[in-house]
Amino acid sequence: MFLQELSATIDREKHVALIVDNAGWHKAGQLAVPDNITLIPLPPYSPELNAMEQAWEWMRSHYLSNQCYENYDQIVEKACEAWNEFSNSTELVRSIMHRDWVCLP
Question: Structure pTM?
Fold first, then answer.
């Protein structure tokens, strides 16, 4: 569903190379990938290439580790709090997500 919606937003003369991790749903045989999108899987065991892994590591180390939760709602609340703290700091996001080898216009 996401790929179909993304596909609909891509200009006709453009093609998207979408980098994905090795989650099972990114490799499912029944996954319908539109013609204007190419999935590029990251190599296995390469979290350093997936900036989101560093974001999760920051959230775990600053908000989520060494905690006891009474219920699912508490887990969700704490995860949302961690995400909001992370995403509200432009400098923090930049320091964790920046890659010298990524060149964007």
Answer: 0.55
Which tokens in the block code for residue 85? 């703290």
User: How many angstroms separate the first and last alpha carbons of the chain?
Assistant: 28
Within a 10 A sphere around the Cβ of 87, how many other Cβ atoms? 12
Asked if residue 53 is part of any domain, the answer here is yes
- pLDDT category, 27, cuts 50, 70, 90? low
**Residue-number span of the structural domain to which 68 is assigned:** 48-97
89 shares a domain with 66: yes
In which residue are the tokens 């390469």 written?
A: 46
The residue type at 57? E
What digits encode the pLDDT tens for the residues 67-83? Answer: 889 999 999 999 999 99
- Does residue 41 sit in the same domain as residue 58? no
